[in-house]
Amino acid sequence: MAHTSKWEPIGAALEPIVSGGLPNEKAKLALCREISDRNIRILQHLAEEAELPAKTHEGLLNEARVFPADIDWGRSRPSRRCPAFANSRLIVHPNSLLAVVYDVKNLISRKVYLLEVCIDDVMTVFGTSGIAAEFNTETATDNRSPTAATKTNKGAKSRGIGLAIDALWPNGIPDGLATADQIPAICVWLTDEKLSIPNVRTIQRVLQKRRLEAAKA
């Protein structure tokens, strides 16, 4: 069976590093350094806009480095335009990824609504034991089994997504609204309500469940 990497919002990935003993600002700097050195993989989720489709881009752009100030840690997305992210307005080289995919040779800027990092890489770089415990239990003092705590975390995140869906679309999700547009709206609502931002796959699963329930109704 092929190994599947686990991805989490970058803000969530910071928490176990801090719990492992690094002060918050040093943890941000260390995480950014490892991402910039390509030791920790990062995903940029790009929203659909104009004639450009929604897209997930793995890695940083233009061999650029990323710094703590470039990231909105609470919302797990870029805080400003940065050459490392696809929301930076820059001249695209004809042979670059964006030019090849979108056939452009001029200025391009994308809306990056979520940054995720590979937790497998984070655990490898910063120490498997402490970080694994943090992601598999609800709190450091939780006496329940890791499996039970993980299920509780997933259930809480799913309930949060459900609340977002009900608040955003009380009459049901519009048929013409693409999933790529629904996910950013849910992420923004969860951030405004100070709730955890789940990974994209969790949001997709809840949306799929809602669609199936609506079809049966």
Describe this protein's structure.
The protein folds into 2 domains: about 5-135, no CATH class; about 145-215. The strands form 3 sheets. The chain has a 4-stranded antiparallel β-sheet. Strand 2 (about 40-45) and strand 3 form a beta hairpin. It starts with 6 loop residues before the first strand and ends with a helix. The chain has helices at about 10-20, 25-35, 95-100, 120-125, 130-135, 145-170, 180-190, 200-215; strands spanning about 5-10, 40-45, 55-60, 70, 75-80, 90, 105-110, 110-120. It is of the alpha+beta class. Helix content is about 45%, strand content about 10%. It contains 8 helices and 8 strands.
Helix and strand topology:
Elements: E1 7-9, H1 10-19, H2 24-36, E2 42-46, E3 55-58, E4 71-72, E5 77-78, E6 90-91, H3 97-102, E7 107-108, E8 112-118, H4 119-126, H5 128-136, H6 146-168, H7 179-192, H8 200-216
Antiparallel strand pairs: 1-8, 2-3, 2-8, 4-5, 6-7
Helical fraction equals 40-55%
End-to-end separation: 37 Å
Based on secondary structure, the structural category is alpha+beta
The helix tally amounts to 8
User: pLDDT under 50 segments (min length 5)?
Assistant: 90-95, 97-107, 128-150
Return the average pLDDT rounded to an integer.
75
Shape: globular
The count of DSSP E runs of length 2 or more, i.e. the number of strands, is 8
Rg, nearest Å: 18 Å
Biggest sheet architecture:
4 strands, antiparallel
Percentage of residues in strands: 5-15%
For the record, the count of structural domains works out to: 2
- Can you list the strand order of the major beta sheet? 1-8-2-3
The H-and-E topology, N to C, reads as EHHEEEEEHEEHHHHH
